[in-house]
Amino acid sequence: MLFQIGGDWVSLVLWMVFLIFMMFFYPRFMVSQIMWKLEKSARNLELMSSKAKKIVTKEITNKPDKRLRESIDRFFEFFVITPVAMDPYGVINKFDHVIRNQRDRFTYFVDQVAPKADTEKKACLEMGLAGGMAVHEIAKIVRHYVEIVRKTKSIQIAMILQMQLPLIERMARGMFKGTIALSKGQPIGDGLGPLVAADLIGNEKVTEIEDRIVMAKIRLDGREIFVIKATGPGGRIGSPGKAVEKVIKNNDIKRIITIDAAAKLEGEKTGSLAEGVGVAMGGPGVERSYIENIVVKKKIPLDSIIVKMGQEEAIMPMRKAIKDALPEVRKSIKRSLERTRRGDKIVIVGVGNTSGIGNSGKVVEKVSKWVDSYENKMKKMVKEKKKKGIEDLEF
Fold it and tell me: Where are the beta strands (DSSP E) in the chain?
């Protein structure tokens, strides 16, 4: 019977030894194989983090000294501790206080390392630092789990990290490209809202009504429109919630329209629109809460318009499909205005990062040309990569 199963005693013994060997040592082989891939990814992310740091440093000065490099290295480890939220009462004010402290620290640091830079350049450096720090944090977290796998030899942790790596690397690449764009003051995907606001403002005069927020009054379809956006062209987000709150307190507002970029689902088209209700505004929710609190008291309708894009596309240089959505957004605004009466006062908020986007309609053509040029440049780069057989064809 044994002869029939294995052919002979030697084959049977060898087969049993192989099974026992695989049972005990195959997981170790798997971990070793996965570790090679994880280590390679961790090193690539650390290289990306180092490059992001150099990009921001170069935007400050072409000849950085040891003191500047040490200051930037130290600031890249900056962190924010979120407030206690077990008792929700007053948590919005706590978050607002911490966020403002964070922003003040960024402003102070940039003032120290780039005292001769103008206001707009300093704003770009603040955003560039934030982007570089995000890449740095991703690299540190991946390295942390790689070292855990190395120490524990846990195949479960290794496989979980390996499965997540494509998404992590995709996010890191987006943040890295965003760091370059923000440091140089170039338009990014999240600037769609401010771009729409600038287009609506045209040649009208703007006034600063809140910290890093400007407003212009225009007439559109017989309505009086208060257009609000972050101050450009430096990279800023500002405090749009408090600005809207201030406008509502001083005027009889009949409707609020918020325009923002929003993460699309895979399979959805970049630049496609969706209309809804509520406040289209990302972030921790502090600015959104200021609007929601006052509109509930005054029963003001909220319309929202979103332009869909990938999470990485929001932080990366603006894509042509996003810029080309501008005419459709204007049509959507007109549809929203049809639900109001002539003479009504309406607030329109262009939510997002205003990097590379000024405060007038003149910037729209400039941004459009830049985006078209960038798109053509990236397409050529993708073709060259394809010819060379490089797998990473994303831009």
Answer: 207-210, 213-220, 223-230, 253-263, 273-277, 302-309, 345-350
Q: Looking at the predicted structure, is the pLDDT value of residue 391 above 70?
A: no
Of the candidates 255, 58, 41, the one whose C-alpha atom is nearest the C-alpha of residue 146 is: 41
Q: Which of 138, 197, 133 is nearest to 167 (CA)?
A: 138
The Cα–Cα gap between 371 and 247 comes to 33
Q: How far apart are CA 193 and CA 3, in angstroms?
A: 78
Domains of the chain from N-terminus onward: 11-184 (no CATH), 189-366 (3.40.50.1470)
Q: 330, 350 in Cβ contact below 8 A? A: no
Nearest Cα residue to 191 out of 288, 319, 305, 379: 319
| Residues, the chain | 395
- Sort strands 345-350 and 253-263 into parallel, antiparallel or unpaired: parallel
Q: At 179, is the secondary structure helix, strand, or coil?
A: helix
What is the token pair recorded at 114? 């780039």
3-state class (DSSP) for residue 209: strand
Residues 6+ away with beta carbon under 8 Å from 92: 285, 286, 289
Reading the block at residue 314, the tokens are 């929001």
Strand partners, 266: 268
Q: What digits encode the pLDDT tens for the residues 173-183? A: 999 999 999 99
**pTM of the predicted model as reported, rounded to 2 decimal places:** 0.88
| Per-residue pLDDT at 70 | 93
Q: How far apart are CA 275 and CA 143, in angstroms?
A: 41
What letter would DSSP give residue 233?
S
Strand order across the 223-230 sheet:
207-210, 213-220, 223-230, 345-350, 253-263, 302-309, 273-277
Are the C-beta atoms of residues 294 and 245 closer than 8 Å to each other?
yes
Q: Phi then psi for 338, rounded to 5 degrees?
A: -65, -20
- 4: tokens are 């029939």
Cα 268 to the center of its chain, rounded Å? 18
**pLDDT, tens digit, 9 for 90 and up, residues 213-257:** 999 999 999 999 999 999 989 999 989 999 999 999 999 999 999
Q: How far apart are CA 341 and CA 344, in angstroms?
A: 6
Phi-psi region of 152 (alpha: psi -120 to 50; beta: other; left: phi over 0): alpha
Q: How crowded is residue 90: how many other Cβ atoms within 10 Å of its Cβ?
A: 9
* Residue found under tokens 């790596």: 165
